[in-house]
Predict the 3D structure of the following.
Amino acid sequence: MTKHDWRWVAGLALLAALAGCARRRQPTERFDASSVDVLRTAFGSAVKGPAGPKAAIPDPDGWATLKGTFKLVGQPPARKPLDVNRDHSVCAPGGKPVLGEDLVIDTATNGIKDVAIYLIGPHPKFPVGDSKWEHESYGKTAGDELLFDQKQCVFLTHLLAIRSSQKVRVTNSDPVGHNTNINGIGGAKSESITVPEHGYSMYQPGGQSPRPFKVICNIHPWMGAMMLVRDSPFFAVSKADGSFEIPNLPSGVELEFQVFQEAAKNYKELTVNGKAATWEQGKFKIKLPKDQTETLNVEIKSAAFGA
Amino acid sequence: MGRFWSILFLMVPVFGVGVFVWAMADWWPMRGHWLPENINAHGGVIDSLFLFILILTGVIFVITSLALFWFLWKYDAAKNAQPVTFTHGSHTLEVVWSILPAATLVFIAIYQMDAWADAKMRRPTLPSGELKPPLAEITGRQFEWRIRYAGPDGKIHTPDDIELGNDLHVPVHEEIVLSIKSQDVLHSFFLPNLRVKQDVVPGMKQYVWFQPNKTGVYDIVCAELCGWGHYKMRGRLTVEPRAKFEVWLAEQAKAQDQSEYPPKAPGAGTANTTAGAAAGLQGTVAAAP
Amino acid sequence: MNVRFASLALLAAALAVGCGPPKVSFVRYTTVAHKIAQDQMGQPEFSSEQWRDIDLTMAMLFGTPDNPEIPALEGGEVGQMMSLSRLKMAAGPVGSDEQGNPRGLYREHCAHCHGITGDGAGPTAVFLNPYPRDYRLGLFKFKSTPDKLRPTHEDLKKTVLEGIPGTAMPSFKLLPDVEVEALVDYVKYLSLRGEVERELLMRTSQLTEGRLMTVVAKAPASGEKAAGKAATPEEAAQQAQLDAVREAVKDIAGRWKSAKSAEVPARPEMDEQKLAASVARGRDLFYGTIANCIKCHGDSALGDGVTNDYEDWVKDLYDPSKEPKAAREYLARGMLPPRNARPRNLRLGVFRGGHRPLDIYWRLTNGIAGTPMPKVLMKPEGDPNAKGLVPSDVWDLVNYVQSLAYEPINNPLAAASEAENLRITP
């Protein structure tokens, strides 16, 4: 009788312990409540004390040009065929496979197409219209309308870079309807709109995006492209041979650029003008001497594309 | 064992009866625990049957519990050293306590047939003799009651129907017929204050009917466990005069047909479709949900 | 008997101690954190120091599930979106305070599906189809504002009041108005909180030092402020970090402030004949190449056109068509199992965003944010030869769509007589 009772007690004790301990563990907070209060008071204080010496941005002394090439080193990864599952007569005529566009390497020059390079510093917000920073030649093109077309169910421009003051005329040269789904980020607005055959829609971004964003079609989900919207006019997208050029950049000050390629995983092992370099998160800084043309020949290893 | 357990068993009829007495008298802590107010003209017979069975079974329950207590107390082994005697039973007793309950049950069965037929079989008829068409179709789904009024053309499942969720209005002093069905699993359409309860079975279309004779706001609840949200399947039944009901229905029809934003001022009136044209009433409040 | 009683007493005591309302806290945005860490920093997770900073900043800005706070911005943008007294009614454990005002409304009505953090992954969420909304993306489907703009207060209130027919979202029309308002404010609070957390994670990934809120400097005493003393380097650093956070919150709150309902042109008045003609025109448009409806909704409007697409909440994390195995990483971090986005079967007559003509007009001209449903192309002003629809075309489409549910072809047995209380389905 006694032995039986003790088993009973042990079983109940175990059950009770499990019931009592059955609280899901939340991550314990690693800060104390007083820090929260201090910060909250500082955050809400309307009186903004002198914020300390801010690094003043010096004025540029003139204009310069940046140009160069982006090339692949090593075996280019094979372009993957896309899953074309509707409107085959238009999108895959003759049953030909449709290949992905996220990494297109020129067989002759090893040039990487559609690498975006754009200005991100020194200003956190670019002073649009400031004559010291924006060359007058860019004023003429500020309100331009750029074309973004699609044919055979492929966006003809795979990475379209525009200024936030410009407009995009989204057109459809196919005999079937598309819907162009622009997934804007940051200040660039989103818009998903049906574009009939030989129809058009005007897209006005309204602000800049911190990095390129996706444009897709929901009727033909394998279609994809990217758009970049920047306040400053200093950006370029590399051509099929990997070359790019940005004229009339402010010279004599340290500029920061961001590089973006859709399929690149990192920019750690680069060769820039023959020397090994690492661009942390694809960013690099450069100071251009006045009235000079600086050339950047960048080589990226195919391993960076997950090959 | 012993006398302690006899007392414990005695507590069962004591507390059992106590709970019912306290509830029927609406005393604390059983306040609000008795039958909800009945506003159905046909609901009285349900309450009568309930009370009759309660009293009958209650009396028998008390008698048998007291008998059990008495035997536990009197023949407690600690106090009773006499040896057990075996009895061959009493044939008479067995016949009596078989026939009496059987007769009682047959009596109850026959007595309630009329009540059952009234609630489940005799659907109200129009003066012409036809069966009365339903005022609304109630569809139970997890976890709400979708209510569908017929709209101006008088037929349910036409484009001018008025669809609502959980909000049922009926006119007072009239025979109301509702058609009820389920969209997914078993639910049970329960109107406590009308003594109406009917399981809605997927694939089965049924009718319930009642005649409310008091205005007010009452509950619709689900009485069949239908999933994790069963407790939330609560609706609101509003019984109001026929005139007010018509005004409310017209407002809902107009709100359903709303095509302007911001909503137009009251009295402007829009007649965009058959529904709007038929239901638009001058001077109704612009109803924007 | 003694041992048995002791055991029962022990069990009762232990269960009593173990029970009670659980301590809740907000859940970290681990799915997006994984994506940002991978894409921007090339590592699978943020470090625990980086998380500590983010947790601290979020607690400072938004408080806890029991005690919410409103970030104090100079322009009062967030204060205009929501009121603290209403947030307090919605927050906390279920009950009421000394004045008899309700508390814990969100936990009572919403949290079991939408989650304490508004992540759409509460305990019952995984059993639902469609899943409950994840507020943290700031995308709401059924609203009056175009594209991916934020909904207005009225849009959210309508969803709470009417529910969403065809889904598990119930109607809360039976709640008092003040409670509904509290819930709507709390939804906005959770949405703002989620977007801010995402933005803070993105900013952390872009910082060279990699940490968002390293300095917690004691605020200067009022005497010193009055004297106009220069800030210490510590205070200046803190101010710079807080400024960055302030800017992020201002940006996101600004999107709520600037969201305006799309204008709706008047619907042409119609009698039965005109309505029939309108429905016929709508059918032509439905099958036509300007609106392209059948491409996704299918040749019979049954929603079987494009069935392999996904909603934004999936594509936000990874591309299911290119890297389907990435789903595992996100499932492990709390993402619900992804499902395809199915276009609506228009013959059911169930319109989730509401079946008023106004609602369907908005769906067509605004699109449905966060889903593959686009908006229709309206004829551009000043270009009469351009392709596109005019408002009366859209109303024709609305009439056609509303008529689809009642087409005789949907219900071939309707003519069969319905016996009463039939026990066997015909």
Q: What stands out?
A: The mean pLDDT of chain A is 88. Residues 2-21 of chain A form the longest helix (20 residues). The helical segments of chain A are 2-21, 33-44, 88-91, 137-140.
